[in-house]
Amino acid sequence: MSVELTGAEITIRCLQEEGVNCIFGYPGGAVLFIYDEIFKQDKVRHILVRHEQAAVHAADGYARSSNKVGVALVTSGPGLTNAVTGIATAYMDSIPIVIISGQVPTSAIGLDAFQEVDTVGITRPCVKHNFLVKDVAELALTIKKAFYIASTGRPGPVLVDIPKDISQQKTQFVYPDKVSMRSYNPIVKGHSRQIKKAAELILSAKRPMIYAGGGVILSDAAPQLTELTQLLNFPCTNTLMGLGGYPATDKQCLGMLGMHGTYEANMAMQYCDVLVAVGARFDDRVIGNPKHFFNENRKIIHIDIDPSSISKRVKVDVPIVGDVLDVLKELIKLLKAGKEKPDQAALKDWWKQIELWRARDCLKYDRESKIIKPQMVIEKLYNITKGDAFITSDVGQHQMWAAQFYKFDKPRRWINSGGLGTMGFGLPAAMGVQLANPKGKVACVTGEASIQMCIQELSTCKQYKLPIKIVNLNNRYMGMVRQWQEFFHGNRYAESYMNALPDFVKLAESYGHVGFKIESPGDVEDALKEAFKRKDQLVFLDFITDQTENVFPMVPGGKGLSEMILV
Amino acid sequence: MRHIISLLMENEAGALSRVAGLFSARGYNIESLSVAPTEDPTLSRMTLVTVGSDEVVEQVTKQLNKLIEVVKVLDLNEGSHIERELMLVKVRAVGAEREEVKRLAEIFRGCIIDVTDKSYTIELTGTSSKLDAFLETLEHSAVLETVRTGASGIGRGEWILKV
Which residues of chain B are within 8 Å of residue A125 when distances are taken between CB atoms? Predict the structure, then answer.
């Protein structure tokens, strides 16, 4: 007969069983028993954040950079509502995390108790699934299910809400090895007939294009995507979420596509005759106006693990539901076994056309400028880190410049909030990345508006000695808002100027970090070098950049991919 | 087009609100919804009537399938099926109206299940359009109250939705 454990003990034991060695959280009344158990053990390390939003972003960054499930622990009521932004962020980008939230005791649920909210109700639309545990005997199985659901199929956040009395009650602890659910059986293997059809279509292509998204990263299929692309000598573009899925420095890579994608990627996307979409979902920031997209005829192969992603915005010809990794392996096998090759003469002409588009040099900017150009900062960051850093970002112009100018050759190096577009994501995500990769170089590319949304985490970074380099592209504007106001709202810069900014150097210093202010283009490189030399310190680099710089190319909202505004 | 969608889901607290929440979050229409446990008390059977283009209904079924607690989804419009709805309607029945209403109820194979000196309450089962037709037959001002369950549907013959 095994000993009985409390719900709180069981919670921690489950995390240990799942191999979780680091969680992010913030204590409070409803989770005190769970925190008591954290105190009594040392297998699961707890990172104390300064705001629950940051706990979830950190767990998210941890998951994105390591392919492990990230875990956050928050208390009931405001603890949970603060976490919602983080949960929705992870949901939009399909990131596997488990959120454990405290709840008021079962006897108090529904009575408007202190720090009570309907957690399951509030989070329902932004989780893959959630549970309210009403019986301690169900707790271990529920946590097992949470990890299973979060990490399989199309990944996503799963929340387990644990009332305080459940964390106190005792039961026998048995952690199931496996879990099976009749209502949840994610498809892994693609349909072989569909894969065969895809291979035939690929071989018939004269102007092919591979369009790869975050699914490639999530499924760890970057080597297979690379192999397929090189086997066929096809051009490949990555979405914002897919950067690093195909090496950016390779000549077959056309860079990112979409609203701020390269000219060559967007043109090739528009004018290809066979499009292979891999783990991508044709969202509004990627293809612009779907009607315009269909002004051109092309056949589409769509590989995705989520059936509801297929034919949602764009009708496709060959849908393949399955894990990208599995489907790509099958597809490569099939193409290698056959003797046929695509029409090489046509492919040569297509590449000639692409090179003409590429020669347009759509990412050019004034390299002689006397004011620091943000693009130049990212280029220097890329050179100094030899393209090998983990780059997190916030949301706005700096995010787009980082995506355009940092050449990601490896997956899981580019960590950003693509779907929800959450300002404040960058710094806490960087904490998670640094904890998952203690030896990795981690930089957070941000702006003076975004960074202030989770600036309190400088304190967490100090406590845990996280040597993150904060690259603040400070243009004294909410840059992307200002850009839209310039283009579409008659230069009326309503509320987009950041007035009364703090002195970021002093701010960093007051948290016990190092801060540099860089105002001249000539100082950019040295400042970055100096920052990365300080291996044990967080360095806040405040780059005073050109206020009027815009992100180009740009596909305005409602326009088609070939209707870019170019510099 | 009107579609009648059947689903089996775990009979758990909150499962219904996941379905309802999905429809409101994604802007789909629900015309009617009826739900109750099946012979297996761990499962609930829901019948949902929605209106939308084929593309929208395809998304609806895919999104329903994605819900963790939904075990199976079937668009009954894909095959031959039977649909029934139950209606209770309270009708004014005074003087000469009493005979007329009674006759109409008989024509529609309804049952009068409650009688007062001023009203009849009629129970009527059929397709939703039959119930609509009955209401149209009655004089508008005579209808005092209607209660409808929403459609329930089942496939014909060997076409079975089971775990």
Answer: 21, 25
Separation in Å, CA B126 to CA B92, B129, B133, B156:
22, 8, 10, 16
Chain B CB contacts of A121 below 8 Å: 17
Count of the separate structural domains present in chain B:
2
B15 has a chain A CB within 8 A of its CB: no
The residue of chain B with its CA nearest to that of A148 is: B68
H or E element in which residue A470 lies: strand A469-474
Instruction: Tell me the C-alpha distance between A264 and A256, whole Å.
Output: 9
The two three-digit tokens of residue B101, written as one number: 């209403």
Same domain, A90 and A211: no
Average pLDDT over residues A338-357: 96
Count contacts between A and B (CB, < 8 Å).
Answer: 36
User: Tell me, what's the ipTM?
Assistant: 0.92
Query: Minimal Cα–Cα distance from B150 to chain A, Å?
Result: 25
Task: Identify the domain containing residue A523 by its residue range.
Answer: 374-544
The one-letter amino acid code at B90 reads K
What are the beta bridge partners of residue A321?
A304
Has residue B140 got a pLDDT over 90? no
Catalytic residue, chosen from A4, A40, A41, A114, is: A114
Q: What is the pTM of this model?
A: 0.96
B17 touches chain A (CB under 8 A): yes
Residues A300 and A205 sit within 8 Å (Cβ to Cβ): no
Pair B86, B106 in one domain: yes
The reply to whether A434 belongs to the active site is no
pLDDT band at A264 (very low <50, low <70, confident <90, very high): very high
Identify whether B140 is part of a domain.
Answer: yes
- For residue range B52-106, what is the model confidence (pLDDT) as tens digits? 999 999 999 999 999 999 999 999 999 999 999 999 999 999 999 999 999 999 9
The β-bridge partners of A497 are A477
User: Which amino acid is it at A353?
Assistant: Q
